[in-house]
Amino acid sequence: MGATANTGGNKKFYKVVGLKKGTEKIWISENVKDESGKWVNQGEFNALSGYFKSISFGEYEYEGEKKKNLVITLVENGNEFCLSGNFNNLFKGVLNSLSGSGSLGFIEISVGINKGGYPSGWVKNSGERTNWALSVDEQNALCKIYKDDNGKFLSKDDSKLIDKLIELCGKIEPAEGNELNSIGNATNPYEGDVAADLPKEKETVMESDDPDDLPF
Question: What's the pLDDT tens digit per position in 49-75?
Fold first, then answer.
């Protein structure tokens, strides 16, 4: 099931659910406020679609650590769908796919579990699957893997890859007939009282036992 705006003039907020290690299901859910004013997830969608409008990047603090986040905004019939996330493997893949097209029109972002058992995102631009801007080798060259003396994975520094993806997103151009495109750098991409209490989450990244086997 895909979420697509059809009526009204609303700005709606979405997130990807199911990114934790060992998950068997992943979906896109809408962030809405319940009667108490608390943000909750509502609905399960495997895709979000609309005309590409913008990608905004920012930073927030979680448990004393600074985290980078992003918001991808799609528009249809005057309605805005804002998909937010941090720089986990899924969203790095989505940004790499968006950047690979050069120009963007009607976009569909879908999520699911890939053949390796990891959460993944796929992008279609005007009905066609997009290519990556960076190959696996180019991505790995921008990452530094730390292992112990026995060769066991300890951690990974992908800050250069993230910076490169942000740079590439800044070069995205609107496709012919899509004048909605804009690239922004918003510390807080949400407006009004939504900005104050939109939930911020700890980064969740599913890693392979051998990170060299993954593109990110």
Answer: 998 988 889 887 878 888 888 999 998
Q: Is 110 helix (H, G, I), strand (E, B) or coil?
A: strand
Instruction: Indicate the SS3 state at residue 192.
Output: coil
Neighbours of 34 (CB within 10 A): 9
- pTM of the predicted model over 0.85: no
Q: Say how many C-beta atoms besides its own lie within 10 A of residue 69's C-beta.
A: 21
CA quadruple 5, 8, 9, 15: dihedral sign: negative
Helices (H), 7-135: 89-101
Tokens 């992008």 -> residue? 123
151, burial (CB in 10 Å: exposed 0-12, middle 13-18, buried 19+): exposed
Structure tokens at 160: 């250069």
